[in-house]
Amino acid sequence: MSSVTANRLKKGMLIKMGNDLLRVFDTHHLTQGNKRAHMQAKMRDIRTGRIVDHKFRAEDDVERAHLEEHEMQFLYKDGDQYHFMNTETYEQIHLTPEELGDAVGYLLPETKINVEFYEEKPMGVNLPVTVDLKVTETVPGIKPAIDNRYSDEEIVSHSSMKIASTNVRTSRELLERVKPETEVVGIDEGQFFDVELPAVCNTLADLGKRVIVAGLDQDYLGKPFEPMPQLLAIAEYITKTLAICMVCGGPANHTQRLVQSSERVLVGASGAYEARCRKCFDPTLAG
Ligand SMILES: [Zn+2]
């Protein structure tokens, strides 16, 4: 077991408190007058997602935890069990949908994922940085040409996960790019598209295709970001995901612009925006 003095805790460290495994995502040194120095740390329980805010005495020893990462190849699904093989030891294990989380939607036979283990138990799953080409043949991702933050030929998430994509300038162009044999159409950054996107999605859905649109529902002022509200209204299923507030660690449903600009569309990578909760969001900051 290794440990670290609390005043040396850093963002990204994994620590063990009792039976909890906590990932530090924010730290704050507290020194008030003659009082003892403390370290305030915001952490996330890697198993439950729960946010833990804890004040350590600066000189406290904190137990560090280390995860072992293994590359696992997806073999097959049997009921609720997903069977994988360790690509180094050929040992086979199975994971549950809960353990796989979002990765469930990306699994094709032979997909390789990285699984983190703590004392032999799976703790988390990291998808490969590049998704196998097979995915791109059946799921052409489409994104508006304005969004070239990371790559012109791929949809790239802030966490560097990639999938091949086609850039389009208008919703109409999107319609032309979808092949007759295409079954699933993935559209990223829906809020950057024009007002015709809902009609185009309806047309594709009426042709029997599965249409999945991801996008921000609100702009930097917290106002509905067209055409997302119209898409929300016509969608069969909606998954609203919340980020984690970068100020308080609470569930964040707002995008805080950190630079001054009153342009509605200001494409920026990390730095220009951060996730904020209702309480910490301040639209006047950008004005
Ligand atoms: Zn907050």
Average pLDDT over all residues = 80
Give the strand order, joined by hyphens, for the main sheet: 1-6-2-3-4-5
Whole-number tally of structural domains: 3
CATH class of the largest domain: Alpha Beta
Q: Are any ligands bound, and if so which?
A: zinc ion
Note poorly predicted spans: 129-140
Structural class call reads mainly beta
Largest sheet: 6 strands, antiparallel
Q: Over the alpha carbons, how many angstroms does the gyration radius reach?
A: 22 Å
Strand residue percentage: 35-45%
- According to CATH, the fold-level topology of the largest domain is Rossmann fold
* CA-based shape: flat
CATH architecture of the largest domain: 3-Layer(aba) Sandwich
Distance between the termini: 50 Å
Write down how many β-strands occur, each being a DSSP E stretch of 2 or more residues: 20
Order of helices and strands: EEEEEEEEEHEEHEEEHEHEHEEEE
Query: Helical segment tally?
Result: 5
In which range does the helix fraction lie? Answer: 10-25%
Name of the CATH homologous superfamily of the largest domain: P-loop containing nucleotide triphosphate hydrolases
Structure description:
By secondary structure, the protein is mainly β. It folds into 3 domains: 2-64, SH3 type barrels (Roll); 68-126, Beta Barrel (OB fold (Dihydrolipoamide Acetyltransferase, E2P)); 133-241, 3-Layer(aba) Sandwich (Rossmann fold). Helices cover 12% and strands 37% of the residues. The protein is built from 5 helices and 20 strands. It has helices at 97-100, 133-138, 171-177, 197-206, 228-234, and strands spanning 2-5, 14-17, 20-30, 38-45, 51-57, 61-64, 68-78, 81-86, 92-95, 112-118, 121-126, 141-144, 154-156, 162-168, 184-187, 210-213, 243-244, 251-252, 254-257, 273-276. The strands form 5 sheets. Strands 1-6-2-3-4-5 form a 6-stranded antiparallel beta sheet, with no helix packed on it. A 5-stranded antiparallel beta sheet has the order 9-8-7-10-11. The chain has a 5-stranded mixed beta sheet with strand order 13-14-12-15-16. Helix 4 packs parallel to helix 5. The model is unreliable at 129-140 (pLDDT under 50). Zinc ion is lined by residues 245, 247-248, 250, 276-277, 279-280.
